[in-house]
Amino acid sequence: MNKPVQYLSADLLICSNSGEVRQGKQNIRLSPVNMRVLVVLIKQAGETVTRQHLFEQVWPNQVISDDALTRAIADLRAQLKPLSSETTLIKTRPKVGYSWQPPVKQISAEKTLDESTAKKKIGQVLLRYGGLFVLAVALLYGFLSWQLKSEPVALVVLPTEMTTTHVAVDALLKQALLATKGLNYLSEHAFKKHQGNPYPYFSHEFGVRWFIESRVENNELTLQLVDARTALVIYSEQHRVNSDEELNDKATAFVAFVAEL
């Protein structure tokens, strides 16, 4: 089994496995798409990575608009700039692609920093108290870790925007979500009851992580994943569909993709 890989560059610790970027006591989490773009760039630090290569590595076998990559690069610059003293992290190569400027050092690590810190604290308790108390603490720690890992990810499925007579994709998405372990669907009643901007409200009150948007226009299906905290589209895919069966296949595959994030 491959060890999780971390990278050191421009005063940043980039944890590709957890999606986190750390600088001292500061810690941010990148979206899955933005982290994949960043990893492709830093693996070829100092070299120009073409837009085509980025599309092939980040969105394999998918038709993605140029705007998706442009938005991902803009998001990375905005999120990483406050953490680093480097003037330029990502340089644009006009009409070609992008390059990560600072040098990069790769680090292999089996455990994240948070896990190591937690185990260290447990070890200190072992030395100080010992016996049954330590056993109780260890059991409690294991139980809480299991609870956190097994807590389903909450999502909201927004109504499909449609200009054709196809079956509404949101109904197919809900069906796939309810059949998928690790995902928790929030009912329409809770969503419709709230007035105003729903994204931060449902993120805070219900722990909703993502919203799923769908649109069908002239047999073109668009599926998007929206971050509940920022209301930013973090992933989008488009497909040509000619039947309700194809719609169902694409909706099911999209939910499977979300479940793996």
Mean pLDDT: 79
Could you give the order of the helices and strands? EEEEHEHHEEEHHEEHEHHEEEH
Strand content: 25-35%
Largest sheet: 6 strands, mixed
Look at the structure and name the CATH superfamily of the largest domain. Answer: TolB, N-terminal domain
CATH architecture of the largest domain: 3-Layer(aba) Sandwich
| Inertia-based shape | globular
Terminal residue distance: 19 Å
Quickly give the structural class: alpha+beta
Poorly predicted runs are: 143-150
**What share of the residues lie within helices?**
40-55%
- Estimated radius of gyration: 21 Å
Number of helices: 9
Q: Can you characterise this structure?
A:
There is one protein chain. The protein has nine helices and 14 strands. The protein is of the alpha+beta class. About 3% of the residues have low confidence.
Briefly summarize what is shown.
43% of the residues lie in helices and 26% in strands.
Which helices and strands appear, and what pairs or packs with what?
Blueprint: E1 5-9, E2 12-15, E3 20-23, E4 26-29, H1 32-43, E5 49-50, H2 51-58, H3 66-80, E6 90-93, E7 97-100, E8 105-108, H4 113-128, H5 131-150, E9 153-157, E10 161-162, H6 169-178, E11 183-185, H7 188-193, H8 198-206, E12 208-217, E13 220-227, E14 233-240, H9 244-259
Parallel strand pairs: 9-11, 9-12, 10-12
Antiparallel strand pairs: 1-2, 1-8, 2-3, 3-4, 5-7, 6-7, 12-13, 13-14
Helix pairs in contact: 1-3, 6-9
